[in-house]
Design a protein that fits this description.
Two copies of one chain form a homodimer. With 335 residues, chain A is α+β, with helices and mostly antiparallel strands. Chain A has two domains: 7-146, PurM-like, N-terminal domain (60s Ribosomal Protein L30, Chain: A, 2-Layer Sandwich); 154-323, Alpha-Beta Complex (Phosphoribosyl-aminoimidazole Synthetase, Chain A, domain 2), CATH 3.90.650. Chain A has ten helices and 14 strands. In chain A, the strands form three sheets. In chain A, strands 9-11-8-12-10-13-14 form a seven-stranded mixed sheet, sandwiched between helices. A four-stranded mixed sheet of chain A has the order 2-7-5-6, covered by helices on one side. In chain A, helix 3 packs parallel to helix 4 and helix 7 (200-208) packs antiparallel against helix 10 (281-290). The first copy, chain A, is globular. At the A-B interface, helix 1, strand 1, strand 2, helix 3 and strand 5 of A face helix 1, strand 1, strand 2, helix 3 and strand 5 of B. Strand 2 (47-55) of chain A pairs antiparallel with strand 1 of chain B.
Chain lengths: 335, 335
């Protein structure tokens, strides 16, 4: 096989078959995918969660992760946020001509390893080739299932679920992925790592606990402020967070300060916000802290009803700042 | 809103919201999508079919169709080929900076209209923006369901299902989509139209008939020869087709002749091959001909056991030609 991707790899003929056999089928090996049909047939019960994301991140590899890990985490986390258990993944590859085939193998292996970690199986795939400069895009779509034993807990979890008297938690430090991507792209020497991670363990532990979770949402593009402002609007409640309580890795804090960036608008790929009754906040915090990827969790704010739909932040210098969703372009191709 | 797509439309913040509100949510309006959660939750029973495809066709609009219609047809047809009823679609948009927003609206409307025609609902979506020259890619993933009443028929339909004594049918003329895309790209004046179409009606009628269908497969990238050769290999049988029996639109035939192309290697996007017992072939033919998009159907060959895995073609001039899957790059970005 050639060392680089060529247009022939997108023909649907012999070269496409070779690529599938030597890379994708090898890494993603499972009985459903091996059938090589037009669609995979998988068993389910009752209802399913469905989600999709395209990944266009540059560079393809970055400190702490790569597009292969990222594309699994993004879709897995979206399923988890509805209380679903990630079950099946489809992946569509759009490869640019000139892509290094060794790199493609490495990224595919990373995808397979992350899928294994998250307990999701790859059910179907597709490959296209376009002109370009050796880059790639990956689209993933995910199917999640709702096991009987957690159905009572998950039924009520939704974007508009926040109630007066709720606490707002985050599962760890904000802005890590954003800072990792931006520092790579600016060729700044740092050891800031992306937090890209599947939050399976943390969500499973929360659901098993019997706590009354109202909302879970992963913090991605647009950062914490964008996510919380959307949830405040959806619920018609006021969200107030304390800037001093928002966890930020000191290295990310200095990096952001240097560039004039605000960590509450910097994206993550392995962190979530959780909203539940204040009386249960300490227990939730302990559960998240004991879960994988949750050691930096914190209670950062509360839900009230005085200014419907608003997100407010008590700043470090004692002021009260009204936060809107991210304006402008943020960091292009962060995920 | 600006007239062109900018990087800000991919931020995940305000501009992304505007794009979703004014274009996607408007066209794809349904209660599942409107929930605007991280995942959609949809009801299903028993088992589901899953498939995905990325669409990178250029130009975005062509005679007889566009990328919006194409991306729905491709995924719908993949679900149908397993005997599943198309139920839910996810769509991931990768937009290039500079894309005309009027054009995006038009393509989204075409997508919505095709989804409506095919009876599939859009459950989840995602939008990213990359640098470029005003183009776009769309990934669709589809979920199909298996209604109780056809489960006896669909259970046996698979890629390896062909048996000795079967007939091979196609649902219409070969190479139309390929010729339409290539003529657009070469700026050749023709009135050849793409056949991009959802084959819902045809497959429903076949499944209802109680005929013993062994294999259904849509004829796409790589053309009829690639598809049949793969099915011959999967079943370990010999497929023999008659060149004179393969339906080709006379305009496509002259176009192909002019360029030295072989219609059996030219892709379609609204045609299928059906394999079932020879004794049932006439009835299947009549059913397909009476179905939407099936008026040009024909019986083109038979299945034997003498040369396992081979695809042979009795040529117009009386020879016997051994056909392999497409070699080389075919027509890049045909779908």
């Amino acid at each position: 096989m050639a060392e680089k991707i060529t247009m022939a790899h997108g023909s649907g003929g012999k070269s496409t078959d070779e690529l599938i056999d030597t890379i994708f089928a090898k890494e993603f090996d499972n009985p459903v995918l091996d059938a090589m049909e037009d669609s995979a047939v998988v068993p389910v019960t009752g209802k399913i969660a469905l989600t999709t994301d395209s990944f266009v991140v540059t560079p393809l590899k970055f400190r702490g992760g790569d597009i292969g890990r990222l594309c699994v985490c993004g879709t897995v986390n979206d399923l988890l946020m509805r209380g679903a258990v990630p079950a099946w993944l489809t992946c569509g590859f759009i490869l640019e001509e000139g892509l290094d085939i060794g790199l493609l193998k490495e990224l595919t292996a990373s995808m397979a390893a992350t899928a294994k970690e998250a307990g999701i199986r790859i059910a179907a795939g597709d490959t296209k080739v376009v002109e370009g400069h050796g880059g790639m895009y990956i689209n993933t779509a995910g199917v999640g299932i709702f096991p009987e034993e957690t159905s009572g807990v998950t039924a009520g979890i939704c974007a508009s679920g926040a109630r007066e008297g709720d606490a707002i938690l985050v599962s760890g430090t904000m802005g890590d992925h954003h800072a990792a991507i931006l520092s790579e792209r600016m060729e700044i020497e740092t050891d800031i790592e992306s937090d890209n991670a599947p939050l399976v363990d943390m969500v499973r532990n929360l659901l098993k606990s019997g706590l009354h979770i109202h909302t879970m949402r992963d913090v991605t593009r647009g950062g914490l402020a964008t996510v919380l402002r959307e949830l405040a609007k959806a619920s018609g409640k006021t969200f107030t967070i304390r800037e001093s309580a928002v966890p930020v890795n000191p290295k990310v804090k200095s990096f952001a300060g240097l560039l004039g960036l605000d960590p509450v608008y910097m994206g993550n790929e392995g962190k979530m916000a959780v909203i539940l009754p204040e009386s249960e906040a300490q227990e939730a915090l302990q559960i998240i802290r004991k879960s994988r990827y949750g050691s930096g969790a914190a209670i950062i704010g509360r839900v009230t009803a005085d200014k419907p739909g608003e997100l407010l932040m008590e700043t470090d210098i004692g002021g009260l700042r009204r936060l809107d969703v991210l304006q402008g372009e943020g960091l292009p191709r962060i995920c």
